[in-house]
């Protein structure tokens, strides 16, 4: 089997929350991310095994969620076992949903192994971008990359993803090691042509503009969406922002350690929070702070289509109606500080 090439926009046909659909409409015409896939690890029997099972189930199905569950159990799980994947990876529910939709005859795309894996890869990119549209949720989710099963972002971790990078980091815990933050990994392999962490020698100030909770411009540029995130990511990376370690357990109880770099998300979080504190009531902030962890846990568990998460999104959208203005930030040696707010 060869490689597939699936635009993230394709995902809206199969697994699109209201927030994701709104984001895709907003980004219409943008040069959005395209994920090039290498499906060499997909079991050779993948297409042959998945397609007939999905179509057979689709002929009997009356409810989309029931069909997705059956497809996952009868078609996806055997492939997971055959390929050595983790059963608990929530991203496989996206593949099951794609198979369910195709089996019901709702979509014209041909169902094959490359297409299903392509949708999973597209989901990885789109989920983090869509989270950014939900007013401040994006950072907490980025720093929880390790909360899913191992390898959740493996294919994107070194491919210039929008929100940052993640690498496995057992070496960082050896007391006698003299290696820097990224351990044994070559920095050029991780960051490519981007600036290396901490390249900036002097402090830097920038302004970030928000409109109804969403970042829309920085320092007079009209970049928005993915372009703005890339710009902020490169700026934050020069000052080593958003670096940290995540320790989590996979479904087997094995602890995994990851080094995380999420500079754009860190910049947006600090600026967005400063603007929220100036424009929202104390009660609104307290309610938002109580809901966000539950929202993130639901998304990390693959429940991003659940009704309770739609309710949380409705509150987040409503609360951001007044969160518009400019925030001035100061970046220096791994720290970012909100100097002032204008709204």
**Distance between the terminal alpha carbons, to the nearest Å?**
54 Å
CATH superfamily of the largest domain: Argininosuccinate synthetase, chain A, domain 2
- Largest beta sheet: what is the strand line-up? 5-4-8-9
Radius of gyration: 21 Å
Could you say what the CATH architecture of the largest domain is?
Alpha-Beta Complex
Number of strands: 9
CATH fold description of the largest domain: Argininosuccinate synthetase, chain A, domain 2
Main beta sheet, described? Answer: 4 strands, antiparallel
- The helix tally amounts to 11
Hey, roughly how much beta strand do the residues contain?
15-25%
Mean pLDDT, to the nearest integer, reads 57
What does this structure look like?
- This protein has a 4-stranded antiparallel sheet with strand order 5-4-8-9, with helices on one face. Strands 3-7-6 form a 3-stranded antiparallel sheet, with no helix packed on it. A two-stranded antiparallel sheet has the order 1-2.
- It has helices at residues 18-26, 46-60, 64-83, 92-103, 113-132, 137-142, 187-191, 226-238, 263-279, 282-300, 307-319; strands spanning 5-7, 34-36, 165-168, 204-211, 214-218, 243-249, 255-261, 325-332, 335-342.
- The chain folds into 2 domains: 5-127, no CATH class; 134-342, Argininosuccinate synthetase, chain A, domain 2 (Alpha-Beta Complex).
- The N and C termini lie far apart (54 Å).
- The chain is globular.
- A hairpin with a 2-residue loop joins strand 4 (204-211) and strand 5.
- With 343 residues, the chain is α+β, with helices and mostly antiparallel strands.
């Amino acid at each position: 089997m060869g490689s597939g090439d699936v635009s993230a926009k394709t995902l809206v046909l199969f697994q699109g929350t209201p927030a994701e659909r709104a984001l895709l409409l907003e980004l219409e015409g943008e040069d959005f991310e395209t994920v090039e896939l290498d499906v060499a690890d997909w079991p050779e029997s993948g297409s042959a095994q998945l397609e007939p099972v999905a179509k057979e189930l689709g002929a009997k199905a009356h409810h989309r969620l029931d069909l997705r569950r059956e497809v996952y159990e009868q078609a996806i799980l055997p492939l997971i076992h055959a390929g050595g994947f983790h059963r608990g990876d929530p991203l496989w529910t996206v593949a099951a949903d794609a198979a369910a939709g195709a089996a019901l005859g709702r979509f014209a795309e041909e169902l094959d192994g490359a297409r299903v894996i392509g949708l999973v890869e597209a989901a990885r990119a789109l989920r983090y971008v869509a989270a950014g549209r939900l007013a401040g949720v994006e950072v907490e989710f980025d720093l929880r990359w390790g909360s899913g099963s191992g390898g959740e972002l493996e294919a994107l971790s070194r491919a210039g993803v929008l929100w940052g990078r993640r690498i496995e980091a057992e070496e960082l815990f050896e007391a006698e090691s003299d290696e820097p933050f990224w351990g044994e990994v070559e920095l050029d392999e991780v960051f490519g042509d981007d600036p290396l962490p901490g390249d900036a020698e002097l402090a830097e100030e920038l302004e970030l503009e928000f409109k109804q909770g969403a970042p829309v411009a920085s320092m007079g540029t009209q970049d928005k969406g993915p372009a703005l995130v890339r710009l902020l990511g490169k700026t934050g990376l020069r000052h080593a922002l958003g670096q940290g370690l995540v320790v989590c357990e996979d479904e087997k109880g094995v602890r995994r350690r990851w080094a995380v770099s999420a500079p754009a998300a860190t910049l947006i979080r600090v600026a967005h929070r400063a603007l929220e504190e100036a424009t929202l009531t104390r009660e609104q902030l307290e309610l938002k702070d109580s809901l966000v962890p539950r929202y993130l846990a639901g998304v990390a568990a693959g429940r991003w289509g659940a009704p309770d998460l739609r309710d949380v999104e409705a509150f987040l959208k409503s609360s951001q109606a007044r969160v518009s203005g400019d925030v001035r930030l100061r970046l220096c040696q791994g720290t970012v500080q909100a100097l002032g707010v204008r709204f």
